[in-house]
Every structure is written in structure tokens, then in C-alpha cells.
Amino acid sequence: MKTHHSLCHTKWDCKYHIVWIPKYRKKRLFWELRQELGPVPRELATHRGG
Q1: How far is the C-alpha of 3 from the C-alpha of 12, rounded, in Å?
Q2: Mean pLDDT, to the nearest integer, of 24-28?
Q3: Mean pLDDT over all residues of the chain?
Q4: Average pLDDT over residues 9-28
Q5: Staple 22 to which of 6, 16, 30, 42, CB 3.0 to 4.6 Å?
Q6: Among candidates 3, 6, 4, 33, which has minimal Cα distance to 19?
């Protein structure tokens, strides 16, 4: 698998690390964030082709 992507004059290796820490958060805040940010990892994976 190719780890570095490139264009004419650039090369990059892009990786994502997302951590959820809901233990000490209020449920309502966590629920609102989860609804907004929930689809983001799927969109990133789809964009990357994974």
C-alpha cells in the first residue's frame, strides 16, 4: 500500500487520530457533539478511499 501521496511539487502522509472522552462530560453536551461530529470519521474514510 502506498503511504505517501503526491502532486507535482508536494508530498504528504495524512493520518487521523480521533479520541472521544465522554466520561467527565455532561450527557447533553456529549449527545450534541456526537450528533454533529458522528459522520465526520465516515466522511474522512470515504474521502481517503477506505
Answers
A1: 9
A2: 64
A3: 71
A4: 69
A5: 30
A6: 33
User: What pLDDT shows up at residue 6?
Assistant: 60
Residues in the chain: 50
Domain range list for the chain? 15-48
Rg over alpha carbons for the chain, rounded to the nearest Å, is: 16
**Which pLDDT score, from 0 to 100, does residue 10 have?**
73
Virtual torsion, Cα 39, 41, 44, 49, nearest 10 deg: -110
Which residues have CB under 8 Å from 26's CB, separation 6+? none
DSSP state letters, the chain:
----EE-SS-EE----------TTS-HHHHHHHHHHHTTHHHHHHHHHT-
